[in-house]
Amino acid sequence: MTWKDVGKAISGVAPVLAGILTGPAGLAVSAAGGLLAECLGETPDPKNISKRLQNDPDALLALQKLEKEREQDILAFRRFQIEADVNNQANARQREIEMARAGHGAAWTTSLVAVMVTAGFFVMLRFVLDQPQVSQAALLLLGSLGSAFGAVVNYYLGSSLGSQEKNRLLKKN
Question: Is the pLDDT at 137 greater than 70, yes or no?
Fold first, then answer.
């Protein structure tokens, strides 16, 4: 059981908290997990929180109330996550630009990896679609390649979803 699992479980009643818990790991996830634990009177452990959510229908109502009462804190956690993600992408792109300007031979490696991931994803997708019965390993590989392909698209084209989320949060503050 992870914080992402807890986030998925509460997405219907506390969507902003769920977004934090299912986002990139780090300080914001720990802070949101601690807030959940405090609200429910549990230790900040995803297994305990998940068990409580499954066994106590009032726990979901408490989280819904928490999200409304602590909206500014929760939005600050989410904003921190989004800014860290945007900065990470910007730094990666800037590193590639600097390497290319410096004439570093490794500047092409990002593009090569992107091509390999993209080709691998579509080859594996075709393989899976052509099989009458697909193994668990093939589906796992396809899922991993699908995630990597999403990261490649996000790196080269940016994330409109992240941008929309950032704009929404900025309007609330």
Answer: yes
